[in-house]
Amino acid sequence: MPNQVSSAQLRPANNQVVVWSLNPHGLTAHFPTPALAPTRTPTFPRGRTVAGLAEWQKNKIMRYIDDNVESCIRVQELGAQVRLSASRFSKGFKVSFGKSPYDYVLARRIEAAKYLITSTDEPLSQIAQACGLSDQAHLSKVFKRLVGVTPLNWRRRHASGSAVPVASQPWSRLAQSSERVMAM
C-alpha cells in the first residue's frame, strides 16, 4: 500500500469490503481480492470524494442504454436522464460500474449483437447497424476485441439457436425490426 496517512473501511453498494487510504496523491481504494476490483481503481484528488450513482439512477441508465442500443448515445443524454451534468455523471458512472459510459455502452452493443447473431440469420452488416455500430468491420473489430472470436465464428459455434425466449431479452425488438427491414 502507498504511504498510508489514514484509512477507513467502507462497504460500497455491492457489499464488497474496500480499504481506502489517504496518500500524497489523494484517496485510493484497495480491494482485498484483485478479481473483485473494477478494471481501474478509482483515485480521487485529496479533499474530494466522488460518489457513485444512486440505485434508481443505475437502473434508469441501464434500461435507457438497452432501449436505445441501436442509436447514438451521448454522455450528455445519459446525464440528463438522471439529472446530472455530463462530467458529474461520467465520474459517478465510473465509480458505480467500474468502467466508462462509452465502454459500458460498447459492451451492451456487443451483448445485443451476440443475441442477434445467435437468434437470427440476418447478415452481420444488418446486425451491426441494429446494434448502433457503423458497419460490419466495426462490429467485427470490437466483437473480436471483447469476445475473443469473430462474429462469424461466434455464429458457427452457437448455430444451434438461443435457448433464451425472444421476449425476455431487452433487445428482442431489434430482432423483430431487423427482420422487417430485410423483408422490404
Automatic annotation (TrEMBL):
Domain HTH araC/xylS-type: 59-157
Descriptive protein name: AraC-like DNA-binding protein
SMART domains listed in its UniProt record: HTH_ARAC
Organism superkingdom: Bacteria
Keywords: DNA-binding, Transcription, Transcription regulation
The keyword Heme is annotated on this UniProt entry: no
Gene Ontology MF annotations: DNA-binding transcription factor activity; sequence-specific DNA binding
InterPro entries xref list: AraC_XylS_family_regulators (IPR050204), Homeodomain-like_sf (IPR009057), HTH_AraC (IPR018060), HTH_AraC-typ_CS (IPR018062)
Biological source species: Agrobacterium tumefaciens
